[in-house]
Amino acid sequence: MAPPRPTARLLTLAALTALTAATSSTPDCRCFPTDPCWPSPADWAALNTTVSGRLLATVPIGSVCHAPNYDAEKCKALQGTWHDPAAHDESSSSIMAPVWAAQSCDPFTDPSTPCELGNYVRYAINVTEPADIAAGIAFAKEHNVRLVVRNTGHDYLGKSTGAGALAVWTHHLKNITYIPAYSGAANWTGAAMKLGAGVQGFEAYRAADSYGMSVVGGECDTVGIAGGYTQGGGHSALMSRYGLAADQVLEWEVVTADGKHRVANRKKNSDLYWALSGGGGGTYGVVTSMTVKAHPDVVTSAARLTFTHDGSAEMVEKWYDALDFFHQMTPLYTDRGAFSVNVYFTGSFSLGPWFGPGLTKAESEELLAPLVAKLDELELPYTYNMTEFPSYLSAFNDMFDYISVGIAQYGGRLIPRKTVLENREGLNKAIRGIVDTGSLIFEVTTHPTLEVAGYPNNAVLPAWRDNELNIVVTIPWNDTAPMSKAYADQKTITNVWDAALREIAPDSGVYMNEADPYEPNFQKEFFGVNYDRLLKIKDKYDPEHIFYAITAVGSDRWMVEDSGRLCRSG
Ligand SMILES: Cc1cc2nc3c(=O)[nH]c(=O)nc-3n(C[C@H](O)[C@H](O)[C@H](O)COP(=O)(O)OP(=O)(O)OC[C@H]3O[C@@H](n4cnc5c(N)ncnc54)[C@H](O)[C@@H]3O)c2cc1C
Ligand SMILES: *[C@@H]1O[C@H](CO)[C@@H](O)[C@H](O)[C@H]1NC(C)=O
Ligand SMILES: *[C@@H]1O[C@H](CO)[C@@H](O)[C@H](O)[C@H]1NC(C)=O
Ligand SMILES: *[C@@H]1O[C@H](CO)[C@@H](O)[C@H](O)[C@H]1NC(C)=O
Ligand SMILES: *[C@@H]1O[C@H](CO)[C@@H](O)[C@H](O)[C@H]1NC(C)=O
Ligand SMILES: *[C@@H]1O[C@H](CO)[C@@H](O)[C@H](O)[C@H]1NC(C)=O
Ligand SMILES: *[C@@H]1O[C@H](CO)[C@@H](O)[C@H](O)[C@H]1NC(C)=O
Fold this sequence. Notes:
Layout: H1 4-10, H2 12-22, H3 41-50, E1 55-57, H4 72-81, H5 85-89, H6 98-101, E2 123-126, H7 130-143, E3 146-150, E4 165-169, E5 176-179, E6 192-196, H8 201-210, E7 213-214, H9 225-231, H10 239-242, E8 249-255, E9 261-264, H11 270-276, E10 286-293, E11 295-296, E12 300-308, H12 313-334, E13 339-345, E14 348-357, H13 361-378, E15 382-389, H14 392-399, E16 408-416, H15 417-422, H16 424-436, E17 440-445, H17 450-453, E18 467-476, H18 483-504, H19 522-527, H20 531-541, E19 558-560, E20 566-568
Parallel strand pairs: 2-4, 3-4
Antiparallel strand pairs: 1-2, 5-6, 6-10, 7-11, 8-9, 8-10, 12-14, 12-15, 13-14, 13-17, 16-18, 17-18, 19-20
Helix pairs in contact: 1-2, 12-13, 16-18
Organism: Morchella conica CCBAS932
Signal peptide: 1-22
GO molecular function, one term: FAD binding
């Protein structure tokens, strides 16, 4: 069974609208596994034949921890790897976000309870070519089955999963081609890389590095580079220098709802190109590849810096002073192309790491010198180490620690430079309220203006262009806690912490890939002024709305019932 709570809360407004509409007409729902309309075994077998035996029936990876498949050794091993993205991204169904996995089949619940499919997809097509995708779309249309586009399963908002769904799984589209001098339809004559939809960050970085190049990708290198990451914007340690991931795209290849494999660039299907470049994954079509700018590699200096307090009232004040000082300095860093991930909670602040692509050690040290002097002046304990690396990849591999998954609930907001500089008191008060009540904040410092990005014409949320801090608030999650705690924590994020951030930056927005799934007014917050235009493009390429993903463009026309069934909302 799907967990009733999150869907019920997510869709309260939509559900109300639907209720009033439902009195006159029956809601139009996708066929659910318990419905008589669900495809027969023979139907599924026929699909399997069409896709050359590449149809997978979901067996959740957690099934080894539950009767009747319980296997003590395998279960223990899974408990050990459950927080490693690789445990999930190699699976055709597993997802990382606890609110969506919802303990329906996880390694930490009572082994005598059954393993349930819950929000996991029922079937997945292990895609090798566009025809597999077209077959999946055709089947979903013919049988009125919910369709999901799945790549790695990293999505925090549950966009790559769905109860009773068929997934097209793009993970094995791993082709990478290097293009030394791009000559396609774009204002770009430099090098480029064509990346299959299943290529992950680490594969793209290694390939680029072997040609003396770098490409913009995430700090977590298991994220799929051409999937939800780039389509939703994509932040990167290189982005204060080159722009967001979506700003790098020269061309997409995509299978649209009519089953056609299309090219989308500035000349061909330019509306689709515009939408896919920042307008969010999982809703306009299934991308099979993207071609992105490759940048000549540069010397990269990078730092780790941590300062702490011992909990005494005096030190706590000093620690917040240092945090405020750091925030005031960030425009100096980001204007030089630097970027940082700032991880902080009561008692500890870490630049984990600070990244200066194109900056020598001396240049970076000069930028951080005032902060270091401030820490000395405040007599706060700190550690600091700036290192210069010959390439982006060598810096990346040394500096980015393993990122665990399934360890928290998330929310957040983009905080513009103007707010940081002109409403310092408001910012400090909001942050302090959040930190003092138990959040671990992951914050990204970056300023990817249009100028930095080379004036691309795309659907990136405009608030990114003014951004200084992408604040991501998290509440740590304990595997053995009941799901009710996860939902309660998510509610705190929506109603208290995100509300405090909304108040200081009401006209900004939220990064759709690192957001609260229950963000009110997600249309405005995730897509800004682009929403209406994106919806028109969605309707043009997917008139039957075969693609649905929670909080994606057009998703407000649907609701997920408590049972997990997907229905039109009115
Ligand atoms: C540990 C961790 C670290 C992260 N680090 C970063 C980071 O550094 N920077 C950053 O910006 N974000 C980061 N994210 C967020 C990340 O961008 C999102 O989770 C993103 O949705 C992942 O995309 P994916 O394709 O890998 O994942 P999935 O969960 O498989 O898919 C996400 C969405 O994209 C859609 N999609 C996937 N493939 C395709 C396709 N081929 N065609 C059309 N739609 C598709 C899916 O339908 C879904 O809507 C991180 C997330 C995690 C869990
Ligand atoms: C699809 O066919 C292959 C090859 O015959 C088989 O191994 C696989 O189990 C089938 N998938 C399903 C869902 O039946
Ligand atoms: C999916 O297909 C790839 C080849 O494209 C293969 O290597 C892999 O084992 C398949 N995965 C599953 C789970 O069948
Ligand atoms: C990937 O590359 C191989 C070898 O060049 C090619 O045969 C195949 O068609 C490519 N696959 C896709 C999906 O482009
Ligand atoms: C491409 O370059 C031309 C000429 O320099 C310029 O007029 C145009 O605005 C550019 N377009 C984009 C999308 O960058
Ligand atoms: C500083 O960091 C670099 C890179 O991680 C490491 O090689 C070096 O040993 C560190 N120096 C100190 C003094 O910790
Ligand atoms: C999680 O909760 C259990 C039981 O309440 C407790 O024993 C354990 O220490 C907690 N783990 C963490 C990491 O907080």
